[in-house]
Design goal:
about 220 residues, alpha+beta, ten-stranded antiparallel sheet, 4 helices, 10 strands, about 30% strand
């Protein structure tokens, strides 16, 4: 069973409280005041630790540690026709939306963050969150919600995966702007030699995120 399939079964079993959130779709625009959010639901299962929060009518935001691998995901989005990645606009400060690129799973309504550690740390303190997504039918949906303001569950997942609770590189990545992806070839100065875990056997698709921090020089 693939990791994506396992995640979908776990999400289907979640029956936590589901507060309402505002939803608007173009061209119509309707909003409703969101209810107070519940706390994160911490799930400790066979080989994984996951913190999730569920909103009506089915949007799920979660952070998961599985085999020391950290995932951050959003599920319940409108179905997208994108095959590998899709763009979401997010807003946490009430000002402009910021575009971001997410990995698409075998479930077209679920996406995974390309920077799960940074995204998870951004959820720790809670507060307002807006997500804007376009479905395969061309409609743009906007979700407005209030995240729980208790970091304990997120901290446990980060710690389980040996990820820092605070990382100075998050600010540098934010200043650098959106991550770009391209299916085109890359010229390697030194060809990587990957070692695949046994859990990867039989997986139909995967994603590797490479990051590089460059410092300016005088030359």
């Amino acid at each position: 069973m693939t990791a994506a399939r396992t995640l979908l079964l776990l999400l289907a079993a979640i029956v936590t409280a589901t507060p309402a959130f505002a939803l608007a779709q173009s061209p119509a625009s309707t909003e409703a005041e969101a209810e107070s959010p519940p706390d994160w639901d911490l799930r400790d299962g066979d080989g994984f630790l996951m913190a999730v929060v569920v909103y009506n009518p089915g949007l799920i935001i979660g952070v998961r540690c599985r085999a020391w691998d950290l995932d951050a995901f959003i599920s319940g989005l409108p179905v997208s026709a994108d095959e590998w990645t899709r763009s979401l606009d997010t807003n946490t400060d009430g000002d402009d939306f910021s575009p971001s690129t997410w990995a698409v799973t075998t479930d077209p309504g679920t996406v995974f963050s390309l920077l799960p550690g940074r995204f998870a740390r951004g959820l720790r303190e809670g507060g307002p969150l807006q997500i804007r997504a376009q479905g395969s039918d061309g409609r743009r949906m906007r979700y407005v919600m209030e995240l729980p303001s208790s970091p304990a569950a997120i901290d446990q997942v980060l710690t389980k995966c040996r990820k820092p609770l605070v990382d100075p590189q998050d600010a540098a990545l934010e200043a650098a702007g959106q991550i770009t992806t391209s299916p085109g070839p890359r010229d390697w100065a030194r060809q990587p030699r990957p070692r695949y875990p046994d859990e990867g056997l039989g997986v139909t698709r995967g994603l590797a995120t490479l990051s590089c921090v460059a410092a300016p020089t005088d030359s």
